[in-house]
Amino acid sequence: MSFPYKHVLVIGATAGIGRALADRFVQTGLKVTAVGRRQERLRRVREPARKIPAFVESITKKHPDIDLVLLNAGLQRPSDLSKPETVSMDLARTQFEVNFFSVVALTNAFLPFFYKKNSPTALAFTTSNLSYVPGFWVPFYSATKAALSSYALSLRESLRNQNVKVLELSPPAVQTELHDFMGEDTGRKVGMPLDKFTDEALEGFLSGKDQIVIGPFPPAERFLRIVDTQRAAFEDLSKMYRSH
């Protein structure tokens, strides 16, 4: 199928996956608007979150042809749950604010704009392989991405009669600054090379898939069974609910 979108807005395009995908979309011939914040500024997300409706109103007036929004910003920090005295609740809340609540707020703000269009539109969420199988060393990050993946399923079903498609991009660990808490030299060697990931992500988007799972850890077959079984069970539950 041909890619139906012409103008991609990438949220969280300062560096890493967001920046790489923005560059690749441009190379593909799409119009791209890229916005983002440095990771250290994401800690102050509560105030910007209150400004999201104004941000969306401003950017959609400036770029009324936006038809795909990639919501990509994220924050990952480790926590040792066996040492409760070291667990920072403020850091846990911040990860939920950045990775989940700000994305929901942006989604709510963009939907009315997309509803008014007569052409295909889409919201794409960057979740994680840890949405399905959590990493115990990053428990709050894993939980935020699981929440976002669950939200994407519910949103997709809720919008089934609308012109807005819901896409989910589920990356493995990728060699970006997301892992800088491990030390820059070590953290940026963790996971799939960024170029390889970006190639596979772009191929997934252009293929028309609404759930793009890349590089699951081995055994990949078992991991993908978890993903497929969850999706099938969700669809069964949704049908059952709608039948009553």
SSE layout and pairings?
Elements: E1 7-11, H1 16-28, E2 31-35, H2 46-50, H3 52-62, E3 68-71, H4 89-115, E4 121-126, H5 139-158, E5 164-170, H6 184-187, H7 194-207, E6 211-213, H8 220-242
Parallel strand pairs: 1-2, 1-3, 3-4, 4-5, 5-6
Helix pairs in contact: 1-7, 3-4, 4-5
Protein described:
32% of the residues are buried. This protein has a single domain (7-218), classed as Rossmann fold, CATH 3.40.50.720. It starts with 6 loop residues before the first strand and ends with a helix. The chain is α/β, with parallel strands linked by helices and 244 residues long. The radius of gyration is 18 Å and the shape is globular. The protein has a six-stranded parallel sheet with strand order 2-1-3-4-5-6, sandwiched between helices. The chain has helices at 16-28, 46-50, 52-62, 89-115, 139-158, 184-187, 194-207, 220-242; strands at residues 7-11, 31-35, 68-71, 121-126, 164-170, 211-213. Strand 1 (7-11), helix 1 and strand 2 form a beta-alpha-beta unit.
